[in-house]
Amino acid sequence: MNELIEKWAGVAPGADPAEADPVVLECARLLAAEPDGEQAVLLAFGLVGMAPYVIGRRGAAVEQASADALAAAAEALDARLPEGEDCGHADHPHTKVLEQWDTDADGLHDAPDARIPLSEWDEAEACPRNAAAWARTVADVILPGCVGGIPEIVPRHHESSIHSLDSVLNDYPNGDPRWDLEIHTTPPSSVSRLSRAALAGYVVVARACCWYLGSGRITHRPLLDDMIEGLESVLPLLPDAPCAHGPGEHPALTWGADQQAGDGIHLRSPGGRTVLRDEYDDGEGYGSSLEAWTCTAFLRPLAVEARDHLREAVETLFGTRRTDHLDPVYLRPDGRLDIGPLTARHVPFKDETATEEAALWAARRYEALGPEGPAADRTVLLLLMATAATSLHLSSGIAQEILGILRAAATTLTADGDGDDRTCAAHPGGHARRGERTQDLMARVARLYEPDADAEAEAVAAGQEFGSEQLACPAHLRDVVAKGVADLEEQCTEEPDLLEQLLAE
Q: Can you name the residues that pair with 331 across neighbouring β-strands?
């Protein structure tokens, strides 16, 4: 045995399979032959110690042989003491390990070292029940679902992650959602150390989170880039090949993203996997087994879907947004603004993506017209982009571009102004009603560009005390542009990466 034990030390992630596989297979053979033998505890922990290597050998003979031997040992070692008989230990070290489990790769390092003589072990560590629990747990790490009997112990920090993601994905985050999402953007271990279940958990959580990440609520681009890179890194572990599962055997994932994220986190710990199996596997072939949850044919489409969605989101949120296709929508054949559709699109919350694209189109049109362009067009376009800046949380790339144009406009308006911007002799009563609805403001903008005496009279009769012409007052334009600049600058201070880009310019 001493010679064999010495060989175990060389079996670690990255070891040459030609040298390491025979060592693992010999240990598994000896344990399977006598799972309750005199050396069973030592052999079981020998396989446990080599498990970090084995989980990197997906599909190799060592994987199945190790899982089978450990499962047999767990059953045999448990049988040494009849069910209900006290072993004399108040608890076993294995229980505390399950409570503090982080990832499968890290959890394995907390097992007793089989190279240390059993005589030097703590009595509870060498207890057959502790050995059986470790054998059962590691068999499940190697091939999820191949054994039962693992207690439903979910690590407290995993439960905390589930609750945090639940709040984020339901859009009521407890604090900055960026920090709750950041720990899930990359795999929990290096790719070579990922167990089957840890890989599945990462993909399921990433796919559950990708819709929120790509929604525009997260404007820190590195977060999206990291998840794209993380998903790319695991694709080599997910071969594009069919599996033996029949229709309906893979998880349907028809429930909400919050529950899917919770399921993914449960996959990361042995106790969590027991929770998952008890919840979904009915034992009669009508539920999804852990083997189905970790099936590469199930996981690969999820990873590809999440990656592609995030790539598209990065392009939409941070790329150069094209707006030339909107020229026929917002320009008439004579080159004048089609003010009706343009102001209608600037009412937020109907379609925020289309609204911010319209605002970007207005900003680019304003800049393209230049100082010599039609004054009416430039005034209206300035009002439209300033309104968008104060009424929408614009995507980072759009916010950056509009902020630059508004800053330039503010400089020009200040240079052309005279006196105190806070007062306006022509309009001592102000220019707009406090809390004016965006749709009412847009109606005034439309009438400013295309005067309509009847519509103006109707607005006054309905209680609108400010006319459309007041919108074009230089003092008012300076005010609304200054507010637009301030709001966008505040957005930038909340997004450090965007702020750095602006300062660099």
A: 337
Name the percent of the chain in helix, strand, coil, to the closest 5: 65, 0, 35
Closest Cα partner for 167 from 176, 154, 158? 176
Strand, coil or helix: 127: coil
Which structure tokens are listed for 264?
A: 């993914």
Name residue, tokens 């189109």.
Answer: 361
Query: 377: part of which helix (H) or strand (E)?
Result: helix 375-391
Residue in this structure with the two tokens 């106790």, named with its chain if needed: 271
Q: CA–CA separation, 440 vs 9, rounded Å? A: 76
Print pLDDT tens along the chain (505 aa).
788 888 999 999 999 999 999 999 999 999 999 999 989 999 999 999 999 999 999 999 999 999 999 999 999 998 887 666 777 776 787 888 899 999 898 888 888 888 888 778 877 788 888 899 999 999 999 999 999 999 999 999 999 999 999 999 999 988 889 889 998 988 887 887 899 999 999 999 999 999 999 988 887 888 999 999 999 999 999 999 999 988 888 998 888 999 999 999 999 999 999 999 888 765 554 467 899 999 999 999 999 999 999 999 988 887 778 899 999 999 999 999 999 999 998 876 567 778 888 999 999 999 999 999 999 999 999 999 999 888 887 877 788 899 999 999 999 888 766 544 456 777 766 666 666 788 888 888 998 898 887 776 776 666 665 667 788 888 889 999 999 999 998 876 655 444 444 444 4
Q: How many residues does the chain have?
A: 505
Q: What is the DSSP letter of 350?
A: S
pTM of the model: 0.72
Look up residue 155 and give its two tokens. Answer: 């690590």
CA distance readout (Å), 31 to 26, 79, 147, 222, 413: 9, 15, 16, 48, 84
Strands (E), 227-339: none
Give yes or no for a contact between 280 and 249, defined as CB atoms under 8 angstroms apart.
no
Q: Hey, what's the torsion of the CAs at 315, 320, 321, 326, to 10 degrees?
A: -150
CA distance 367 to 381: 10
Q: How far is CA 241 from the centre of its chain?
A: 26
